[in-house]
Amino acid sequence: MSKFEHPDDGPVFSSPAFDQHEQMIFCADAKSGLRAIIAIHSTRLGPALGGCRMWPYENETDAITDVLRLSRAMSYKNALAQLSTGGGKSVIIGDPVRDKSEALFQAFGRFVESLAGRYIVAEDVGTTVRDMNQIRSQTSHVMGFSAQQGSSGDPSPVTAYGVFCGLKAAVEFRLGRNDLTGLRVAVQGIGNVGYQLCKYLHEAGAKLIVSDIQRQATARAEADFGAEHAAGADIYDQDVDVFSPCALGAELNHRTIPLLKAPIVAGAANNQLERPEDGADLAARGILYAPDYVINAGGVINLSYERDSGYDRAQAMKHTARIYDMAMKIFGRAEQERRPTSDIADDMAEELLTATG
Ligand code: NAD
C-alpha cells in the first residue's frame, strides 16, 4: 500500500489547523540562520495579507500549528472586514530579543519576493517597523514599514477605534443603549491597543477598571482616565457591563468564563477563545461575545489604505467604523439562529470565501 493512501498521519496536511490552506513555504537560510514558515490560507479575495510573528517556538509542530491557525484567521478577518485581500501569515522561529539581524530579515524578504505578491507581509508579535524596513530592501510586498517612508505607521490606534465601534454595537444590542455614560468596562491589558481603547471609552463617559501585569501600564490609565485598578485574576469577576480582553489570547476558557459577571465580552486580543466550545459556553450563559477577529480588524483595514498614491487615514477610519455594522449583523443572525456569535462569524466568513471561490 502506498504511503499516499494514508495521508492522515502527518503534521501538515492532516493537522486540523491545515483546513484547506493553499500553500505553505518552509524557508531556510544557513548564512543568517533564518528558519521561517509562510502559510497562505486563501487568495480568493486577493493577495494573502498577514503579519510576520517572531517567536522562540519550542518545536516545529508548534510553529506549524501557530502559523496555520493565524493564517486562516486572517482569511476570516479580511473577508469580514470587506477587504480585497486574502489570508496568510508567517512565523520566524527565533527569539526576537536575541536572534534578530539585518541579514535574517533580508533573507526573509527574498522569500517573500519569490512569491511575487501572493503574500504581503506586515508586523506582528515580535517584529517591528525596523524589521519591515529591512524586509523592504528585498521586496515591495511589505506593509507597515516606517511612516516617514509613506506607510501607515502604528496600527494600534485604528485597531482600538474598531474595537470601540464593535463594543458600542454589543452594548446597543445587548443592553439597548447607545450612550456609554456611566458604562462600566473592565479592560485587561493596557498596552498599545488597550490604552487607546481606554481613551475612547473615557471620552464617551465610561468608567474603567484596568489590569496589567505591568503596574506602570495601569498607573497611566489611572492617572489619565481616572481608572480603578484590579490586580491579576480579579479582573474577571468585576461587577461591570463589559469585559474587554486586550492582552494575550486564550483568556476565555473553562476557568475564567464562570467567573464573568459582565453580560458582554468585547476586546482586542487575538484568539480569545481557548477552544471553539468556549464560544458556546459564553452564549449559554447569556454573555454576548463580540468575535475577536471581527472587532480587532482596524489594524489590517488601516494597512489596506497604504496605496501607491500614499496612505489615507481618513478613509481607513471611515472603513473601520463599519465594524459596528458587521458586529450588529453577526449578533442579529446569532440571535435568530440561536447559535454562538463565534460560530456565526466563522460561517459568514466561509460564505464570503466560497461565494468568490
Ligand atoms: P501590547 O504588547 O502593546 O499590550 C499587551 C499588554 O497586555 C501589555 O501591557 C502586557 O503587559 C499586558 N499583559 C500581558 N499578559 C497579561 C495578563 N495576563 N494580564 C494583564 N495584562 C497582561 O499589545 P497590543 O498591540 O496592545 O495588542 C493587544 C492584543 O491585541 C494582542 O492580543 C494583539 O495580538 C491584539 N491585536 C493587536 C493589534 C494592533 O494593532 N496592535 C491588532 C489586532 C489584534
Please tell me about this protein's structure.
Helices cover about 40% and strands about 15% of the residues. The protein is α/β, with parallel strands linked by helices and about 350 residues long. It folds into two domains: about 1-65 and about 90-150, Leucine Dehydrogenase, chain A, domain 1 (Rossmann fold, 3-Layer(aba) Sandwich); about 155-355, Rossmann fold (3-Layer(aba) Sandwich). The strands form three sheets. Strands 8-7-6-9-10-11 form a six-stranded parallel sheet, with helices on both faces. A five-stranded mixed sheet has the order 1-2-4-3-5, with helices on both faces. A two-stranded antiparallel sheet has the order 12-13. Helix 4 packs across helix 5 (about 190-205) and helix 5 (about 190-205) runs parallel beside helix 6 (about 215-225). The chain is globular and about 55 Å long. Bound molecules: nicotinamide-adenine-dinucleotide (NAD). Nicotinamide-adenine-dinucleotide (NAD) binds near residues 155, 156, 194, 248 and 268.
